[in-house]
Amino acid sequence: MNKNDPEFRQTVLVIDDEPVNRQMLGMILDTKYHVIYAGDGNEALEQIRIHKEILSLIFLDLVMPGMNGYELLQIINNDAELKKIPVIVLTSEQSAEVKSLQMGASDFLSKPYDLPEVILARAKHSIDLYEGMNIIKATENDALTGLYTREFFFEYAHQYDYRYPDKAMDAIVINFNRFHLINELYGRIFGDKILKAIADGIRTILKASGGIACRYDADAFYLYTGHQDNYDVLLEQVVSCFRKLLKTPEIRLRMGIYPDIYKATSLENRFARALQACNSLRNQYTTTYSVYDMDMHEKSVYSARLLEDFEHALEEKQFQVLYQPKYNIRGNRPKLCSAEALVSWHHPEFGRVRPDAFIPLFEENGLIQKLDRYVWREAALQMKKWKQNYQMTVPISVNVSRVDIYDPDMPDYLLSLVQENEIDPHDYLLEITESAYTDNSQQIVQVVKDLRKDHFRVEMDDFGSGYSSLNMLTSLPIDALKLDMAFIRNISLDNKEMRMVELILEIADYLNVPVVAEGVESEEQYELLKNAGCDIIQGYYFSKPVPPEDFSQLIAKERSQDNDD
Ligand code: C2E
Ligand code: CA
Ligand code: CA
Predict the structure, then answer these.
(1) What is the best residue among 399, 483, 544 to mutate for testing ligand 1's pocket, by most ligand atoms within 8 Å of CB?
(2) Cis peptide before 86 (omega within 30 of 0)
(3) What pLDDT, on the 0 to 100 scale, is given for residue 37?
(4) Whose Cα sits closest to atom 21 in ligand 1?
(5) Region 105-116: what's the mean pLDDT?
(6) Which residue lies with its CA nearest to atom 30 of ligand 1?
(7) How many angstroms does the Cα of residue 493 sit away from the middle of ligand 3?
(8) Cα 350 to averaged position of ligand 2 atoms, centre (Å)
(9) In the chain, pLDDT over 90 holds for what percent of residues?
(10) Minimum CA distance residue for ligand 1 atom 46
C-alpha cells in the first residue's frame, strides 16, 4: 500500500460498455495503475466485490445497457464498505455531472477525454483525497527502505481498519537475531542492502494480501496485512528475498504473529502481542515464527496479575526472605561463613512463586527497588536478631538488581540501614550480577567504588554468564567472584567445564579475590571444586534456601562445632 514506492501500483477499475472507450482510458491509466475492466454493471459489481480491499478508484460510464451507471453508483453508495472507494464518472452530457456528484461521485471526466496528464492528475487527486493522504509529509517514509516510518504506520493502520473493518488482518513483527553481526562482518552498506531486500519482499506480500508496513527501527519491521493461512509460506517469502545475498547462518530472522482474532483488541495491543511472540524466539537458533497463543496470553495475564498484586503483597508480608548458607571449605572442615538472602513470594492464590517469575518482571516495571529495599531491611533485621541470640555475626549477602545501580540514593539507604542495625558494613555483602557490569560499566564501576568506600563488600554474581572482559575485571574493584551455576552443573573430572572452572579460579587467584561456587548439589561436585582450590561453596549439597527459624539451627550447629574445635 505504499504509494511512494515507484514499483507499487494501485488498482483501478474501468467500467464501460464500449470496448474502444475501455481501451483508450485503459492505455492512459496503465502507465501508472494496475487496471482491471468491466463491460457492464453486473460484471462491475462482481469485480468491485472481489477487489474491494485493493481497489483505489473506479471509473464509471453512466450510459450502459442493463444496469446503468446511476444505478450502480447508488448501490455503491448504499454499501458502507464500497462507499469508501472513490468513483469518477465518465459522461458526455454536462447535465449529468451535477447529478452524479450529488449521488456521491468524487469527480467526473467528460468525453471526449482530456489530455492523458489531466486524467492521471484527476485520478491521483481522487485517490489522495479519499485516502486522507493528500497532504504528503516527507517524514512518512523511511529513507532507506521506502516503507512507512513507525510514526505513520499506526496512524495509517487505524485508517486501514476504518476503511476495511471486516477484513481479517494479521499483525506481524519481524526482527533479526544478531543483525549487528552483518554490519560488523560486511559493513553497513551491505547491511542496508539486506534491509532493502527485505522491504522489497514485504512489498510483494502486501501487493498480494493488502495492508501496510513500516520499518519500526534498525532491523525490525511491522506488517499489517491480510490474514494468511500458511505462515511457513510467508516466512519463506521474506527469507528468500535475502538468502541469496547472505550466507551467514548465525544471523536468523524471527517472526511473531498475532493472527486476526476478530480485531477484539486495539491495534496497539495486537502488535504488542505479535512482539511478545517474536521475542519468545530471541534465543532460538533457527529461523522460525511464533504465533501468539493461549500460553503466551496466560503468561501475560499472569504477569499482569503479579504486577497488580505487588503492593498488597508487600503490605501483607507475602514476601518472605529465605537464607541459603555459604560454607568456607579451605580449612579441615566446612565452616559456615555467610548466607545469601533470597526472596520468595507466598501468593494466596498461586502458592509459592519463584523469584525468576517476578524479578525480571519487576525490573521492567519499576517495582524492584521497592522489593529490594524490603529484602535488604529484612536481612539487616535478621542479622541483628542472630547477633543478639547467638553472640555471633552471620554475614549476609543480598542481591542488588541492575536497576538499583541507577538509584542515586541507594548507597545512602544501605548505609543508614547498617547503621540503624549496628551492623559492620563489612559483614553486609552486595551481589551484583555480571551482566549489569556489561550494561553500563562506567556507571557501575563508580557505584561499586562508592559502596566499597563505605566498607561494603561487593560480589560479582553469575560470573561467566556475561561477557565482561579481562581488562575490565582487572580495573574493577570487587571482593568475590560467584561462579555461574551453569558451569558447576556439568563439571566432571578433566572435562571442558571443569577446565573452564579451573581457568576462572586462576584468574581469581591472580586478582586475589575468593571464588564462591553456587549450585553445588553433589559430593562429586564438592570434591572437584575443593581440589581445584575453590574457597566457598553454596548449594543444595549443604542446604536449600530456608526460613530464618531453620537457618538458626545451622548457626547453633556451627557454634557447637566451634566449641568442639
Ligand atoms: P541467584 O542470585 O543466582 O541465586 C541463586 C539461585 O540458585 C536461587 O534461586 C537458589 O535457590 C538457587 N540454588 C541454590 N543452590 C542451588 C542448587 O544446589 N541447585 C539449584 N538448581 N539451584 C540452587 P532463587 O531463589 O529461585 O532465585 C533466583 C534468582 O532471583 C536469583 O539468582 C537472583 O538473581 C534473583 N533474586 C532472588 N532474590 C532476590 C532479591 O531479593 N532481589 C533481587 N534483585 N533478585 C533476587
Ligand atoms: Ca545472588
Ligand atoms: Ca548467582
Answers:
(1) 399
(2) no
(3) 96
(4) 519
(5) 82
(6) 355
(7) 23
(8) 24
(9) 59
(10) 399
Which residue(s) pair with 291 in the sheet? 257
The domain total for the chain is 3
Residues 168 and 126 in one domain: no
Domain annotation covers residue 301: no
- pLDDT of 240 > 50? The answer is yes
Clarify whether residues 131 and 158 are in a common domain. no
**How far apart are alpha carbons 399 and 405 in whole angstroms?**
12
Q: Which of 310, 338, 342, 430 to mutate to test the pocket of ligand 1 (most atoms within 8 A of CB)?
A: 342
Contact 479, 458 (CB under 8 A): yes
Pick the residue with more confidence: 439 or 276? 276
Distance between Cα 482 and ligand 3 center (Å): 7
- Cα–Cα distance between 479 and 457 in angstroms, integer? 6
Q: Give the model confidence (pLDDT) of 434-474 as tens digits.
A: 888 766 677 888 999 999 999 999 999 998 876 666 666 77
Domain that holds residue 199: 150-292
Check whether residue 382 and residue 496 sit in a common domain. Answer: yes
Are 537 and 517 in contact by the 8 Å Cβ rule? The answer is yes
- Ligand 1 contacts CB of residue 343 (under 6 A): yes
- Look at residue 168 and give its three-state secondary structure: coil
Cα 431 to ligand 2 centroid, rounded to whole Å? 6
Residue nearest ligand 1's atom 19 by CA: 519
Q: 322 versus 122: which is more confidently predicted?
A: 322
> Cβ(399) to ligand 1 under 6 A?
yes
3-state secondary structure 130-155: HHCCCCCCHHHECCCCCCEEHHHHHH
Across the chain, how many H-helices and E-strands are there?
Answer: 21, 20
For residues 179 and 372, give the distance between their C-alpha atoms in angstroms, rounded to a whole number: 35
Q: Which of 292, 322, 352 is the last residue of a domain?
A: 292
Q: For a pocket test of ligand 1, which of 359, 461, 525 has the largest count of ligand atoms closer than 8 A to its C-beta? A: 359
| Residue 545 beta carbon below 6 angstroms from any ligand 1 atom | yes
Would you say residue 135 has pLDDT above 70? no
Residue 121 contacts residue 32 (beta carbons within 8 Å): no
Instruction: State the residue for C-alpha cell 541470640.
Output: 389
For residue 325, pLDDT over 50 is answered with: yes
Q: What is the dihedral of CA 136, 158, 52, 102, to 10 degrees?
A: -70
Q: What is the pLDDT of residues 152-201, one digit of tens each?
A: 898 888 878 877 888 899 999 999 887 887 887 888 899 999 999 999 99
Average pLDDT over every residue of 133-141: 53
CA of 434 to the centre of ligand 3 (A): 9
459 and 499 part of one domain: yes
556 in a domain, yes or no? yes
Whether residues 335 and 393 fall in one domain:
yes
Residue 3 lies in a domain: no
Residue appearing with cell numbers 531486500: 197
424 with 553, same domain: the answer is yes
Q: Name the DSSP class of 113.
A: P
